[in-house]
């Protein structure tokens, strides 16, 4: 173990971040080569005259940047230089580099059934007489046969009734979301969203220059009065929301609340952008699109129900907005790749996609039951059919301390601050992705770590000065 002591002179900001910055500088300069074992939390805290909690947060920040990695029973070590180029992303993680860690930051479903089906499907596509069509530029909105297949899928799995003419293909839900917002807003325009929202919406707004405003939510989703007030004050172009299995809280907006939101949007001339990527998990209530198809741009994908890697997403737009959505698709990507869409269309036609979706529903329910058998009932929030859950931390736990302590124990979760919009204060809660660990055994191991961490609040007190 090295006797490393960081140079903190002249460094501004929180102490834990200054320590992480000093560590980054020493790794970059070669003072701390790959494989160096760092001082323990307590030793470094004593040397610097800070709390152990401060060192825990510093090491967690350094680990997030890819600088270091911990091994239970052995200590904390400097990682190789190749990790330094990885982007700072709260959901980035490499199982090859961290095999002992249970990653519950992402919501990525099991894909073994699709992996088994892909080879035969690709072989059949390769033998098809019209394969050349899949190697050419597609129409901007997608091939007619693919749009028709998606329309059938939406009716069967998402309770969305539409025609192929209103369906436009995208490259995953994130791209569909970007296309939908760009069709109705310009840089500088106000776009509303829930106070806690999908991280992808935050990154999109930052890149495209939208003025994102978070509005209040409760256990049922967007609060109608808060939405109405924001419409009066801010003249927004759109409200982006995830009413079914809200990301991150896993709540489901009741039908009556959906009608209220639609009525307010229509009254103020605001377009609703409904993200229904989790909609296949429950039969009721129906999407807002079914209530107000004339003012709703509906976005979804096959990422949670069939396969994340296919990157097959779709937009259902009101007829007057179809040309604008299509123009955005052309500008951003010309068209979505037809080969993945062909795979999806064949699976929809032969019933394979429905079988895959049913497996995901069953697996999500089983993992929810597992989670609720391990975690304290009074801290678990969210719908029991969701692929994730929302863990509201009891006193004295604070969000950052709990995330850092869980990471130290080899369980990765996502703090509520990642989803907070603007300067809105995030609750002391974390999102737990249940379907990303490769097995239920791995998930159980991670959940037991969280339960044990909750039962040891003395770790939470270490950061209090």
From TrEMBL:
GO MF annotation list: DNA binding
CDD domains per the UniProt record, alphabetical: AAT_like, WHTH_GntR
SMART domains membership: HTH_GNTR
Entries under PROSITE patterns matching the protein: HTH_GNTR (PS50949)
UniProt source species: Azospirillum rugosum
UniProt record similarity statement: In the C-terminal section; belongs to the class-I pyridoxal-phosphate-dependent aminotransferase family.
Gene3D superfamilies noted in UniProt: Aspartate Aminotransferase, domain 1 (3.90.1150.10), Type I PLP-dependent aspartate aminotransferase-like (Major domain) (3.40.640.10), Winged helix-like DNA-binding domain superfamily/Winged helix DNA-binding domain (1.10.10.10)
Domain HTH gntR-type: 13-81
Protein's name according to its UniProt entry: DNA-binding transcriptional MocR family regulator
Tree of life domain: Bacteria
InterPro entries linked to this entry: Aminotransferase_I/II_large, HTH_trans_reg/aminotransferase, PyrdxlP-dep_Trfase, PyrdxlP-dep_Trfase_major, PyrdxlP-dep_Trfase_small, Tscrpt_reg_HTH_GntR, WH-like_DNA-bd_sf, WH_DNA-bd_sf
Keyword field: DNA-binding, Pyridoxal phosphate, Transcription, Transcription regulation
């Amino acid at each position: 173990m090295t006797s490393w002591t960081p140079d903190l002179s002249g460094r501004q900001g929180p102490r834990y971040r200054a320590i992480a910055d000093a560590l980054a500088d020493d790794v970059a300069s070669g003072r701390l080569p790959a494989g160096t074992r760092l001082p323990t939390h307590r030793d470094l805290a004593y040397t610097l005259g800070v709390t152990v909690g401060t060192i825990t947060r510093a090491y967690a920040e350094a680990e997030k940047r890819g600088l270091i990695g911990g091994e239970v029973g052995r200590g904390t070590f400097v990682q190789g230089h190749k990790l330094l180029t990885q982007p700072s992303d709260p959901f980035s993680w490499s199982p090859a580099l961290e095999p002992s860690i249970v990653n519950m930051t992402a919501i990525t479903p099991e894909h073994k059934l699709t992996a088994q089906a892909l080879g035969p499907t690709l072989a059949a596509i390769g033998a098809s007489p019209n394969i050349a069509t899949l190697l050419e530029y597609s129409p901007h909105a997608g091939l007619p046969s693919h749009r028709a297949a998606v329309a059938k899928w939406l009716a069967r799995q998402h309770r969305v009734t539409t025609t192929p003419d209103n369906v436009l293909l995208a490259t995953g839900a994130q791209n569909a979301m970007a296309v939908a917002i760009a069709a109705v807003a310009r840089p500088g325009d106000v776009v509303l969203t829930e106070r806690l929202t999908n991280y992808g919406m935050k990154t999109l707004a930052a890149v495209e220059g939208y003025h994102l405003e978070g509005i209040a939510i409760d256990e049922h989703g967007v609060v109608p009065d808060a939405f109405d007030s924001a419409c009066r004050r801010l003249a927004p172009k759109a409200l982006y929301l995830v009413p079914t299995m809200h990301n991150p809280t896993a709540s489901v907006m009741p039908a009556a609340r959906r009608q209220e939101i639609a009525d307010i949007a229509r009254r103020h001339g605001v377009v609703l952008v409904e993200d229904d990527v989790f909609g296949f998990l429950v039969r009721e209530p129906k999407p807002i699109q079914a209530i107000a198809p004339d003012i709703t741009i509906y976005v979804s994908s096959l990422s949670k129900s069939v396969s994340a890697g296919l990157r097959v997403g779709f937009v259902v737009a009101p007829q007057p907005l179809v040309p604008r959505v299509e123009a955005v698709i052309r500008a951003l990507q010309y068209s979505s790749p037809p080969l993945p869409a062909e795979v999806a269309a064949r699976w929809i036609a032969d019933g394979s996609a429905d079988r895959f979706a049913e497996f995901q529903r069953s697996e999500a329910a089983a993992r929810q039951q597992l989670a609720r058998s391990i975690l304290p009932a009074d801290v678990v929030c969210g719908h029991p059919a969701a692929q994730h859950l929302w863990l509201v931390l009891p006193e004295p736990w604070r969000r950052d301390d709990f995330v850092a302590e869980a990471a130290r124990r080899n369980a990765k979760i996502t703090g509520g601050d990642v989803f907070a919009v603007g300067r809105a204060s995030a609750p002391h809660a974390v999102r737990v992705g249940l379907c990303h660990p490769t097995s239920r055994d791995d998930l159980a191991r991670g959940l037991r770590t969280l339960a044990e961490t909750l039962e040891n609040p003395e770790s939470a007190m270490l950061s209090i000065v």
